[in-house]
Amino acid sequence: MASDDWHYVRNGKSYPPVPWNVLVQMARAGKLSSNDQIWNESLPRWVSASSIEGLIPVRPVNPYRDAPEPADDAGPPRKSWLGMVSLMMGIFFCVVEMVMIATAGILESRPGGLPEQSPETALLGLMLLGGGGGAFCGAILGLIAMFQRAGNKIAAAFGIALNGMCVVGVVVLMVVGLMISK
Predict the structure, then answer these.
(1) Which pLDDT does position 80 carry in this prediction?
(2) What pTM was computed for the model?
(3) Which terminus in the chain has less CB density within 10 A, N or C?
(4) Would you give the distance in Å from CA 48 to the centre of its chain?
């Protein structure tokens, strides 16, 4: 290079000239970027620092280190699979509970009713309790889904509502059954 005095402009601010070796040290230390403008008597005009060979160190690109971090709101909101599971459990256990209640009503309407000590009564009771327990688990899954970072929480909210209604329904049936039996 003809002259050892190098002028540079960094972030729109002009700085006093420096020798070539200082300019190289600044570039290696990251104090001079490839987009900064530099000028020397040997140049016809101001140029970017990256256009001067040997000034800006060439770093090998590491796609894992240099890749930008994904933004939290990148892309469409994901649906919570736990919320969907909670919703499906709510639908399933509500249907199971309604079928069990209808079956108990039909069996009770038979002549002689539904004997308290029969296997059918025990099976219906166990299925009602199992449905209530499943609905309780579905409600818990829905609550967990509400605290996930996933964007769509509608399925989780409906799952909580349906499963909660099933659990409340089973509890009400148990309380009514206990009151009637006394």
Answers:
(1) 58
(2) 0.52
(3) C
(4) 42
Output the pLDDT for position 71. Answer: 57
Q: Which amino acid is at 149?
A: R
Contact 42, 11 (CB under 8 A): no
Residue 43 per-residue DSSP state? S
Amino acid at site 23: L
> What pLDDT is stored for residue 129 in this prediction?
86
Q: What is the mean pLDDT of each run of 10 residues along the chain (182 residues)?
A: 79 90 87 89 90 78 58 56 88 90 84 82 86 90 83 81 90 83 68
DSSP state for residue 49 in the 8-state scheme: G
Q: How far apart are CA 134 and CA 132, in angstroms?
A: 5
The pairing of strands 13-18 and 37-39 is unpaired
Nearest to 127 by CA among 170, 85, 84, 86: 170
The residue extents of the domains of the chain are 6-51, 81-181
> In the 8-state DSSP scheme, what is residue 80?
P
Calpha distance 163→138 (Å, rounded)? 6
Predicted local confidence at residue 1, as pLDDT: 43
Closest CA to 55 of 35, 18, 25: 25
